């Protein structure tokens, strides 16, 4: 009889322990993040001197998006920015010897829950034809979304001067480029610099008998879709700019 009572008591004690543990282990980490976005960094500081082709980028504390019915400005004109999670970027080109101003009004950017970055952002800088040591100067920018000098890599290579004796740097923004690239003999010193290893993809149909949707993709660094005839052609991926 005593053994039966003890067993029943043990069962109730175990049940109480499980209930108490359930309350104690309530995961507070699942609570909604109510913090507002914070600007972490920017690639161009106030008053900086940069090259004529490049981009303005801000990094926030969380993934961002542009709020509906808002506008972002470059030199007073409305522009479209590219947003990749927490990174907000505007690409500019052909700004030789010009003063530049990039502006994001308060509330134009929000996080994914609609909480706004509630400060005005602006940066003034100067773009010049030749800037040494900045690491941000490119001779051409390729962006499949139309935010650069070219939308295809081949077009940028074709536009490069012949018989170069110094590096001609072509920046390739993240995106998918469906093309077979050729760098011919008279196009030496071409530097193809991808924004990231996983973000830049070059593809084309290997089997011309199959449907055109049957694609094979390689990352730019190891791509078999780049036919190199010229000497001194360099392929790079930038893990972080």
TrEMBL record:
Which positions, given as ranges, span the membrane? Answer: 216-235
GO terms assigned for molecular function: pectinesterase activity
Determine if Membrane is one of this entry's keywords.
yes
Task: Tell me if Hydrolase is a UniProt keyword of this record.
Answer: yes
| InterPro entries cross-referenced by the UniProt entry | Pectin_lyas_fold (IPR012334), Pectin_lyase_fold/virulence (IPR011050), Pectinesterase_cat (IPR000070)
Provenance organism: Bacteroides reticulotermitis JCM 10512
Its GO biological process annotations read: cell wall modification
Name of the protein described by the UniProt record: Pectinesterase
All copies of domain Pectinesterase catalytic, residue ranges: 139-223
Q: Where is the signal peptide?
A: 1-24
Keywords associated with the record: Aspartyl esterase, Hydrolase, Membrane, Signal, Transmembrane, Transmembrane helix
Similarity remark: Belongs to the pectinesterase family.
Top-level taxonomic group: Bacteria
């Amino acid at each position: 009889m005593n053994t039966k009572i003890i067993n029943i008591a043990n069962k109730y004690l175990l049940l109480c322990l499980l209930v108490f543990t359930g309350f104690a282990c309530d995961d507070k980490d699942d609570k909604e993040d109510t913090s507002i976005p914070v600007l972490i960094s920017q690639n161009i500081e106030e008053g900086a001197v940069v090259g004529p082709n490049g981009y303005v980028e801000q990094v926030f504390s969380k993934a961002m998006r542009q709020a509906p019915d808002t506008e972002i400005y470059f030199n007073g004109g409305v522009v479209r920015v590219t947003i990749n999670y927490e990174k907000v970027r505007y690409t500019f080109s052909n700004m030789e010897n010009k003063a530049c101003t990039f502006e994001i009004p308060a509330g134009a950017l929000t996080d994914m829950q609609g909480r706004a970055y509630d400060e005005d952002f602006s940066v003034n800088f100067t773009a010049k034809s030749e800037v040494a040591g900045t690491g941000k100067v490119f001779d051409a920018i390729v962006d499949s979304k139309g935010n650069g000098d070219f939308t295809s890599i081949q077009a940028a290579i074709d536009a490069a001067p012949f018989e170069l004796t110094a590096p001609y740097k072509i920046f390739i923004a993240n995106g998918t480029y469906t093309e077979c690239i050729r760098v011919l003999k008279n196009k030496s010193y071409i530097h193809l610099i991808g924004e990231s290893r996983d973000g830049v993809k070059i593809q084309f149909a290997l089997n011309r008998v199959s449907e055109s949707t049957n694609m094979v993709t390689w990352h730019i660094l190891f791509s078999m879709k780049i036919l190199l005839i010229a000497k001194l052609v360099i392929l790079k991926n930038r893990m972080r700019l």
